[in-house]
Design a protein that fits this description.
Helix content is 61%, strand content 0%. It is mainly α and 54 residues long. The chain has a domain of 32 residues. The chain is elongated. The N and C termini lie far apart (46 Å).
C-alpha cells in the first residue's frame, strides 16, 4: 500500500513539474536563444519582459 502512495505521490509531482515550463512563451521571443542557453539572461530581465507583455 505504501508503494502505491509513493508512486502516486511521485507521479503527481512529476506531472506538476512539466507544467512549470513554457518554451513558447510570447515574452521569451525577444531573447536570443544562445543567451538563454548560456544563462546570460538574468531572471529580473525575464520578469520585466513578462510584466511588459502582461
Amino acid at each position: 500500500m505504501k508503494l502505491y502512495y509513493s508512486l502516486g505521490f511521485s507521479l503527481f509531482f512529476s506531472i506538476l513539474s512539466f507544467g512549470q515550463f513554457n518554451s513558447n512563451a510570447p515574452w521569451m521571443a525577444q531573447f536570443n536563444q544562445e543567451d538563454l542557453k548560456s544563462n546570460r539572461i538574468r531572471f529580473q530581465e525575464i520578469v520585466d519582459a513578462f510584466d511588459a507583455y502582461w
